[in-house]
Design brief:
Length: 265
């Protein structure tokens, strides 16, 4: 059973916990599924805008992005790539829930917890995974809509401007609450997989924990996420180095016996 100190030192274990064939396989499955839908819908959007599939593929490959292309696309092309982006994000959130559950269960001593069980748990929580950020986004949308309506009412001659100025303090407080909700949405998108995987609760618990983190532990969240990013980059660089050395050894050994044919391959 994994013993935790519940401080920043636990973050240092992240690369080691991630170095698992089971967890990498789970991530590969989810990433492949989401990326396929993103590629399909994005390239459909390009073709709808007049691109040929061959030209679009030669220019963009596996990472097409309308923002990077710079051309003007019709609204339906943006709609297609937007849907593809949402599917990719939701696929990654579901996959991260499965990975978090696998780590949580094996850390508790269940060494035989399978990747299929992890995915089964994630799909059982799919409503909570998706509804947590969507609910917060809907609330933000209602707040923005309310602000627009108040702005229209403020255009009423004399009474509108006077009434708006009398409640300035409330508008400022509302703007602060809106910023808080935006931050909570970002935190929820990043941490809802871990929250649901460890608590086995619903969307309400995930939203509550997101608010709690933003309000009570903002600097801890920023520090932990920054440290995790640095460790991820270092671990990726280390793994790339060893993969390169392994490829060098393979090339050296096979070329020594096969000769020029292997080099041509």
């Amino acid at each position: 059973m994994l013993k935790l100190g519940f401080n920043w030192r636990d973050i240092l274990r992240a690369p080691r916990l991630a170095l698992s064939l089971q967890r990498m396989w789970i991530q590969l499955v989810g990433l492949t599924f989401g990326l396929l839908f993103y590629l399909l819908l994005t390239y459909l959007g390009m073709m709808a805008a007049g691109y040929s599939l061959k030209t679009a593929w030669m220019q963009n490959g596996l990472l097409p992005c309308f923002f990077a292309i710079g051309d003007q696309f019709p609204w339906y092309s943006w709609l297609l790539t937007g849907i593809g982006s949402l599917i990719l994000v939701f696929s990654l959130m579901i996959t991260n829930t499965a990975v978090s559950r696998a780590i949580y269960m094996t850390s508790k001593g269940n060494s035989f917890y399978s990747w299929k069980e992890a995915f089964a748990f994630a799909f059982r929580k799919i409503a909570s995974i998706l509804l947590t950020p969507i609910s917060l986004i809907v609330l933000i949308g209602f707040m923005v809509l309310g602000a627009l309506i108040i702005g229209l009412l403020a255009k009423i001659p004399f009474i509108g401007a006077l009434g708006f100025s009398l409640f300035t303090v409330f508008w400022i407080l509302g703007a602060l609450i809106l910023v808080f909700f935006v931050l909570a949405t970002i935190v929820a998108t990043l941490l809802v997989p871990s929250v649901l995987a460890t608590t086995d609760e619903d969307a309400f618990e995930a939203i509550f924990q997101s608010f709690s983190i933003v309000w009570s532990h903002p600097w801890r969240f920023i520090f932990y996420e920054g440290l995790t990013l640095i460790l991820s980059l270092l671990a990726l660089g280390g793994m790339a180095f060893f993969m390169k050395q392994a490829l060098f050894i393979v090339n050296y050994l096979f070329a020594a016996f096969i000769g020029g044919d292997f080099v041509n391959l």
